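Consortium newsletter contribution from the modelling node. Members have asked for a concrete example of what our holo predictions look like. Here is one, prepared for the magnesium ion complex that several groups have been discussing at recent meetings.
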Amino acid sequence: MQFSSVDELQKKLRNRELKSTDLVRESLATITKQEAHFKTSITVLKDQALEQAQVIDTALDKGDDLPALAGIPIGIKDNICIKNTQTTCGSRFLEPYTSPYNATVITKLQKNKGVCVSKLNLDEFAMGSSTENSAFFTTPNPWNTECVSGGSSGGSAAAVAAGQVPISLGSDTGGSIRQPAAFCGVSGLKPTYGRVSRYGLVAFASSLDQIGPFARSVKDLAYVLEAICGHDVNDATSSQAPIQEWVNSLATPPKKFKIALPKQLIGETIDEDVKHCVLQAVDTFKNQGAVIEEVDMPSLEASIATYYIIAPAEASANLARFDGVRYGRREHADTLKDMMIKSRSEGFGPEVQRRILLGTFVLSAGYYDAYYLKAQKARTYIKNDFSRIFADYDLIMSPTTPSVAFKKGEKSNPLDMYRCDLATIPANMAGLPALSIPCGFSKGLPVGLQLIAKAFDETSVLQAGHLYQQLTHFHKEIPNGV
Amino acid sequence: MKKATESFDFDKTCTLAHLEVPEDQKEAMKKSIDDVLGYVETLNKLPINHLAPSSHAAENELYLREDKPVKHHGLLMDENAPDWQEGAFWVPQLKA
Amino acid sequence: MEYDVVIGIEVHAQLNTKTKLFTACPSGVSENANEHTCPLTLGLPGTLPVLNKKAVEYAVMAGTALHCKIQKKSVFSRKNYFYPDLPKGYQISQFDLPICLGGYVDIEVGDSTKRIGITRIHMEEDAGKLVHQGAEAIEGSSGSLVDLNRAGTPLIEIVSEPDIRSAEEAKAYVETLRLILVHAGVCNGNMQQGNLRADINVSLRPKGTEAFGTRTEIKNVNSFRAIVRAVYSEIERQTEILDSGGSVDQETRNYDDITQSTTVLRSKEEAHDYRYFPEPDLLPLVLSDEQINRWAGQVQENPFEKKKRYVKILKLSKQDAYTLVADVALNQFFEQCLRHANGVKGDTISKWVLGDVSKAANDVQGFEQLQLKPAELMALLQAQEKGDISGKMAKEFLPQLIEGKALAELLKGGGQINDSSELESIVQEVMSENPDVVEKIKNGKHNSANFLMGQVMKKSQGRAKPDAVRELILKKANRG
Ligand SMILES: [Mg+2]
Ligand SMILES: [Zn+2]
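And here is the predicted structure:
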C-alpha cells in the first residue's frame, strides 16, 4: 500500500479490503527496512501503534463510521509531545525525557483515529535546514542519499517521500516544513499562525512556530489540516477563526486566481533550474486563466536579518527551562550554577548554543533597541508589505528554496545556510498560510513551488495547489530505491 | 547602532545564557555570531523608524481562562527528575 | 549629620484565585511538596501560558481600591534569569505596560493623615520554594529541595512612590495596603504565610536637600514588626557609612529577623540583566471600558472610609472603629448587623459585636466559622430594646442562638413575663414563704424588698422584669 493516498487507504479500510494492523505493520516494516540508507525515525512506536490499529480494526469490522484518518499511519516530528513517550527534539539534553502529556495535535489525531507510528528526526530543537544539527543522525534525501532531506522537519518530509507513512506532522518556524517538503518532493503546509494549537510543540520561536502536515498530495494535506486545526484552550494564541471544510472545498473548481510573483524571490539569488520550473508553473496557472504579475516587495530582503534576531531572541528564553533541575540531562557539579551551565553546555549542540547566545545578546541591556526593537519594526514593515500585495492579489507565488537539496556538509558556514531561507521566512514573519508543492526536477532532485495566501485563507493555497496537482505529475514521482 | 562586532562581549553573553563554550571552539563560535550581527546591520537601511513594533504575527484577542482548578496526574516527576528526593527536585548547593 | 529618610516599597500580594496565573493547576497551600503542579508549573517543554480571567479581575479591583488608572491595554513580558525556583527560566511579568498606573493610599500616623503615591501595579507569577538542607539558609547548605507548589501563583506587585519618610510610615503603609486588599477580597493578607511580602527601598539624604541618595533594597521582610526593625537597622547602617565619609552601595540586602540586621544579597555588579521582552505566547491584554467598569464596580467603600463613617455617624471611638474594620469577616458581620439594625443604635451593636459575639467567634476560629446570623443577633437586640427581655437574658440567649436555637423559640419558652397573673402568683408565693421579710418592708425597710426580688427572679428563672417585681412587692406588702 506504499504511496497510496488517504482516499485510497480510507476506501480499502472501510470496505475491509485492508486492515489497519496490516497497514501499520507495512509502515513499520518499511521504516525498519530503510533504516540503513535513509533513517528517519528517532523512536518507532511499534507496540502502541499496533495496539491502536487493533482497536480501530475492531471498530471498522463492526461497521462503525470512523473519521477520515481512521487506521492510517502517521509520522510525528520529534518535537511534538506524545504522552508517555520520549520526546527528544533531536537533542542530547532531552534524550532521557518522557512527556507525561499529549500535544493538542496528538489528542486531535487520536480522536480522528490516526495511528502515530514514529517520532521523526529533526535539527536539534528545530534549529537548522538539513537535520545535520540533529544530535543523533542526519536524515538523507530519498532522491539522493548524498544530499540532505532539508530541515528542520527533514525526518517528516523524508518519511513521506520514501513511502514510510502517507502523512506526517512537522513544525515550521522559518520554513521548516516547506523547505524539506521542497527538497524531498512532497507537499507541505504551514498553516496560518494560530490555526493549529502549539500546545505540546516544544517551542523554538513562539511567535513564528506553527505545526503543519506533510503528504503526497494537497488533498491529503487538507484531510490532516481539518483533523488538527481549531481553537485550543491550552494555547492562548490559537485562533477562534471558523474552520473550513478544506477537503470539500477542493471539489468545487477554484476561481481564476490573481497571483503576485515578487521579483525579490525570482531574482539572481535563485538557481536557473529552479527559476525555470517556477516559470513553467506560472504558465500552467496562466493556462487555467490565472492572472500572474510580477510585483516589488522590498521588505522581503529584510526578512532573514529580521528572523535571525527575533527567532534566536525568543529561543534564548524558550530554552532556558532546560536547566537540569526537573528533567533532561544533568551533569554533576558542586554548585547549582555549574550544574546548570555544564548540563546545558553538554546537552546542546553548537547550532543551538549559537542561537541562544545570539538571542541572549540582542536582548541584553544596551542592545535591545538596536536589535530586537528594530527587528520588530522590520516585522511590521514586512507585514505591511504583504497587506499591500493582498489588497490586489489572492496568492503570492515563488520558489520554496533558491536551490534544490544541497550535499551533506556543503553548507558549513551558518550564515550561508541561513540565507537559503529567503523565500520561506516572510510567511512566518506575517503569520500567513504557505504551501510547498513539487513543481519539477533539477539534476534528479525535486524543486518546490511556494504559494502564500492571506491569513486564514488556507482555502486559496489548497485550491490552487490542488488545481496544479490535477494538471501535473511531479507530486506522483517516486524516488529510486525505495 | 553600536557596531556589533566591536561591542559583542562573548564571555558576558555566555554567563547570561548559562553556557560555556570550550576554549578551542570559542573563536569560531564568536566569529559566526559576529557574522550574523554584521549581516543584520542591513536593517539600519530600512525606512522603519516610524513603524510600531510587532511582537506577534496577528493581533487576535487574548483568550482568558476561567478560574476552575484541574488536578493533573501521572506527571512522571520522579521518573524525569535527575535527582528526586522526598517528593522534590534536589539541586546542589546554591553557593560554593 | 542629620538625614532625611526616603523609602519606597514594593509589595507583592498573592491573589486568592483558585488556580494559578497561567494554568488551571490549583493555587494555595498544600500539604506535600510538588502537589500543586502540572505540565506548565513544572516548566515542561511544549506547555503554554493561558491567563486566568479571575486574576485580571482581582488586579483591576486592587487597582480600583488603590485609586489607580486601569489600563485598557497591558502587556506581559518575559523576565529572564536562572534560578531553580523559576521553572521556565523566565518569570512572566508586566514591564513597560502594566495593568494599573498612578494611584495612592492615605495612611494614618499618629493623628495625621498622609497620602502615599502608587506608581504602578503589575501582574506576575510567583516563584516556587527552596528548602535548604543542612542549614537555615543558603549559606552552608549542602543542597536544596525544589518545591513548585507556589510557582505560578498570581501576584500583583504594587510599587509605591518614594513618599515614605520613616519606619512607622512604612509600617502604616503596608498595614493600610494589606487591609484595603483584604477588604476588596483579592488577597488573604497573611504575611506569615507569605500572602503579602514587602521589599523596602531605603536611602538617606542630608536634611533639607532634594537629590535622592543611593538606595538599597531590603528583601524578606515578612511581618509588620520586621518592617520597623529592618528600616531602623538600615537607617542606622547607612547613617554610619555616610557619617564616616563613605558612600552607600546600590545593592540588594536580606533582612534577618533573628539578628535584626541586613546583609548583602546581591551587589550592583551582580545585578541581573533581565532581558525583558514581550511574551510571545500571550497577546496584549485588552480590556473594554464596560469590562473594567463591571470589575471596578465590585469594589466597596475602602476600610478607612468605613472607619471614618463609624466614628462620625455611629459615634464610635477611633479604637473601636479600627477594630471593626481590622478583621474582614468581623466587619462583614458588623455591616450586616447595621443593615438589620431597625432602630438599635450603632454603639450598642458595636458593643455586642466586639464583646460577646467576638468572644464566641474566637472560640470557633473567627467570624467565618461563626454560626450566627447577623439578622438573628439584631432580632435579639431589638427584643432587648423593646423590653421584651432583660440585658442579662439577652446575654444568656446568645450562646443558644449560636447553637442554632431559633430566637422565637427562646422567647416563647421564657421571654420576660408579661402576664401579670403569672407574675403575681410567683410574688405571692415568695411573700407567703417569707412573712418576716414582708414585716420588715411594712416597717419601712424598703431595702429588704431586694431579698424577695432575688427569690422571685430565681423562681421565675430570671424571666421577671425587676422593676415590675419590686413595684408589686412594695404594693402588696404595704397593702397586706
Ligand atoms: Mg520588583
Ligand atoms: Zn515582582
